[in-house]
Amino acid sequence: MEQAxxxxxxxxxxxxxxxxLVLGIVLIVLGIIAMGSVFVMTIASVxxxxxxxxxxxxxxxxxxxxxxxxxxxxxxxxTGILYVVAGWMMVTNPQESAILLxxxxxxxxxxxxxxxxxxxLAVRYPHWGWVLLDGIVSLLLGILIWRRWPVSxxxxxxxFVGIEMLLNGWxxxxxxxxxxxxxxxxxxxx
Length: 190
Prior knowledge:
Blueprint: H1 2-7, H2 10-15, H3 17-36, H4 38-66, H5 73-92, H6 94-123, H7 128-147, H8 156-180
Helix pairs in contact: 3-8, 4-5, 4-6, 4-8, 5-6, 6-7
């Protein structure tokens, strides 16, 4: 049991709970700002993701040439080129990229929702109702986004990023408050 407590970072959380609190508050504030300016956040997110693809693509191409005797040389090379081209397209056309990514998000949510609804109804494992609810919400979100597409591309990505930041910040605040109240040394149970 003591090893499990050490693996969870009990002592580190107790010592650094203030930093977790500050990070949580910063993320909450940034999430609120992002949700207040969803179009700007959507474009910024697409732009950032485009640059991530470009950097990953360049690294993939460098890796391909670094290990050119490896059998996967052409796969690495083509993957890297694809990343760079897709990233460049996103960076140079962030609004159009947001439109395409929003449609992909809608499709993903619809398929995920249908899959979870079917799985929950077919298997009926413990607490299957929560998975059913998750599936219904995902399906409805996907349909909502798809029905309002391409207009939804102006706000969906930014709103989702803002919500994620807000929820992540809130969970860090709650974690920090729990960490503040942890005892000096974790007790081992029998």
